[in-house]
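Show me any protein, keeping tokens residue-aligned.
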Amino acid sequence: MELTQKLCIAITAGVVMSLGLLKAVPVQAVTLNFNWNGNAGYSARGSFSYNETQGYRTINNSKVQSIAVSFFDPSQKLLNSFAPITNASIVYDFLDFNYDTATKSLFGYFDVGQDNAQSTDYYLFGTVGLSLTLRNPTEGTIDQNNGLINITSTTPVPEPLTTSGTVLAGSIAWLIKRRQVAAQKTKA
């Protein structure tokens, strides 16, 4: 084996071992999705995020970093979308939101959307597990269900340190293999 190849192998091994010794820094915000389906076919899909490094047992309005929600008619046509919280700033006066990080479920009173008394406003409110109602300020109650709202997790993004280490190790291995192929061609 050439000196260059031995050096590349030693560097690769050193990088891989040192990456294993370093503590990965956790991603600070976790984002979750929620889905609601009414009895008449209307639906709401949204997402929310919070800082998971704080170790909160429950997340409420004051601890949420963002909430976004979209409302759809029975044919899945978008009715409207709203962001009641953006960059940890609440812009919806009636917002009510509670999430249990241990059970990974919403609980208690729930109110998301927008109600500025406009015909294009929609909001979902009620008590999770009992009854949730979709309303429009001009039409009134549009749809409702038994309070069921589903939470799904988003795919976590790999830690930057892990991704960088994998790319670096792969690049060094590719370089070694390329040099081996070139060395075999010159010998032939």
Observations:
- The chain has a mean pLDDT of 82.
- The CA atoms of residues 181 and 187 lie 10 Å apart.
- The longest helix spans residues 160-187.
- The first strand starts at residue 29 and ends at 37.
